[in-house]
Amino acid sequence: MIDTSRLARISGESGKEAIQIQRQIVLPWSEAFRISIRNVTLRLGRALITGAGVVLGIAFLTSVVTSKVVQDGLSASQAAQVQSLAAATAGAIGGEETEAEGIAADVEEESGRQARQIWLVIMSLLVCGVGITNSMLMSVTERFQEIGTMKCLGALDTFIVRLFLIEAALVGILGSVLGLLLGHLGMLLIFCIKDGFSVPAKMNWLTMLGYLGIALAIGTIISLVAAVPPAVRAARMAPAVALQTEI
Amino acid sequence: MAKIECPECGEEIETTGIVTVCPNCGADLREVMEAVGHEVQSFRGDLVRDDSVTTHEFIVRTRGLTKIYTMGEVEVPALRGVDLDIRRGEYLSIMGPSGSGKTTLFNMIGGLDKPTSGSCFIEEVDMAQLDAFELAWLRCRKIGYIFQTFNLIPVMTALENVTLPMIFAGMGTDELMDRGQELLALVGLGDRLHHKPFELSGGQQQRVAVARSLANSPAIVLADEPTGNLDLQTGKEIIDLLKELNLESGVTIISATHDLKMIDVSDRIVHIRDGEVERIEERAELELDIGTLGSEHLPGH
């Protein structure tokens, strides 16, 4: 793939050595992580703005999911109560039909509400994604000089992309976790106030944890995807162009 | 223009007296070219000297280098055919008013931008033929860069800035820490290892940049207006530091500047105007001029 004899010519070394050197344009993952973490912690303001988009989007998603799980839990325990009640008053007639009708209406109303909620969640995640892309674009643009410098020092395009993606993943994970906590605990608190503090005991925690995991993944992926276009654009710039960019 | 056949891959190549490497397989063509040397010379009379010089006397050569920037519909030529031979181990200053094409030439030599036409050779390798990886390798290992605006990575300490190119070059952690400290001590910042750029003065930042440029023992250090953002005294210190490095380690220093302090230390000065080489002054000639001036005055006494 790489013509080592040409490298050897530049270095004045034998082809074999050149092959060894060729493998030695590297940025180890550990170093990349160190640099990215440093970038996030030292530019906390910028990271917070980017992260805020994730936090809000994921908080909304989680609150919707939490309310669904809680309501499912509540209606399940209600259904159990109704069933035991029905068993206790076995033999009573006439009430069954109207109850069945009521349940059918409930189901219809429920599915309509779910569709609305899914629509809302998708919209909010889209808005969140656009916000993060915008924020990332700014974050990359204000570092054009730095990117140009790194390329002068021998960084490959992939190094630049790698650094920005690690950074985006970190911001995405942190933002998602914060958003999860915010949305989940907030919604739970509201239900507790409304329906009494036995609510957490009535919900299905396994399902809840599954949903939280999905929300975490969605937040991280949105953040990563949003970071790809600006990072790739920055990495492809000729170093001279990147260096001369003034903001 | 003569045509020769590459002994390795059989590719037919038009010789210009410049290309000594097969663009297809990278084989050495100098022997074949010598065989048809007479032809080459008769076809390109102005390039005869290229065949007479030994390959490695010149570390950088440019031929007909042009660069045209397109701004909207207007084409702005920044370089109009620059032919320049830079000797190994010399201290070369590129001088000219702002807008004369200094920085553009600097970018071409450093492989930071592609010329519109013409070629630039580093150690006889045409940079236009290098792929992205080879260019990165060249920037990492063979060329050190110093900028007017220092361009240190703001979130890294002095030591981390200096060791970054070594990380790219795959050096081990212990080794690069040692070398980083050594280099910072060399530029007089042994006690400022863990300071961030914003905690350092302009002169100190530029010293860190000088140390960074030497990280992988490059053959060439390119400095673009290294004293442009510094006061007179610190500027002088940086120039002295560069000259010292030039003398001690034999690294070729190419500096774009309009700082007249540079004249004292330069072996040669290339004057650029409107994207063309106006004239080249040799240090030896300058001294000779001063010498003859002095001797002319002598008989009068």
Protein architecture, described:
Chain A is mostly helical and 247 residues long. Chain A has one domain (29-88, 97-244). Chain A is built from ten helices and no strands. Chain A has helices at residues 4-11, 15-22, 29-42, 44-88, 95-141, 144-152, 157-195, 199-202, 205-236, 239-244. In chain A, helix 4 packs antiparallel against helix 9 and helix 5 packs parallel to helix 9. Chain A starts with a helix and ends with a helix. Chain B is α/β, with parallel strands linked by helices and 301 residues long. Chain B folds into two domains: 1-52, no CATH class; 88-114 and 128-300, P-loop containing nucleotide triphosphate hydrolases (Rossmann fold). Chain B is built from ten helices and twelve strands. In chain B, the strands form three sheets. In chain B, strands 8-9-10-5-11-12 form a six-stranded mixed beta sheet, sandwiched between helices. In chain B, helix 6 (158-168) crosses helix 7 (173-186), helix 7 (173-186) packs across helix 8 and helix 8 runs parallel beside helix 9 (232-249). Chain B is globular, with a radius of gyration of 21 Å. Mean pLDDT of chain B is 81; it is low at 38-55 and 293-301.
Spell out the blueprint of helices and strands.
The complex is a heterodimer of chains A (247) and B (301).
Chain A: H1 4-11, H2 15-22, H3 29-42, H4 44-88, H5 95-141, H6 144-152, H7 157-195, H8 199-202, H9 205-236, H10 239-244
Helix pairs in contact in A: 1-2, 3-4, 3-7, 4-5, 4-7, 4-9, 5-9, 7-9
Chain B: E1 2-5, E2 12-15, H1 30-35, H2 37-43, H3 48-52, E3 58-71, E4 74-87, E5 91-95, H4 102-109, E6 117-122, E7 125-126, H5 132-141, E8 143-146, H6 158-168, H7 173-186, H8 202-213, E9 220-224, H9 232-249, E10 252-257, E11 268-273, E12 276-282, H10 283-297
Tell me the helix content of chain B.
25-40%
| Major sheet details of chain B | 6 strands, mixed
Mean pLDDT across the residues of chain B is: 81
What is the average of the pLDDT values of chain A?
82
Rg over C-alpha atoms of chain B, rounded to the nearest angstrom = 21 Å
- By CATH, the superfamily of the largest domain in chain B comes out as P-loop containing nucleotide triphosphate hydrolases
What is the chain-wise order of helices and strands of chain A?
A: HHHHHHHHHH
Number of strands of chain B: 12
Helical amount of chain A: over 70%
The CATH topology label of the largest domain in chain B is: Rossmann fold
What proportion strand of chain B? Answer: 25-35%
N-C termini distance of chain A: 38 Å
Distance between the termini of chain B: 59 Å
Beta-sheet strand percentage of chain A?
A: under 5%
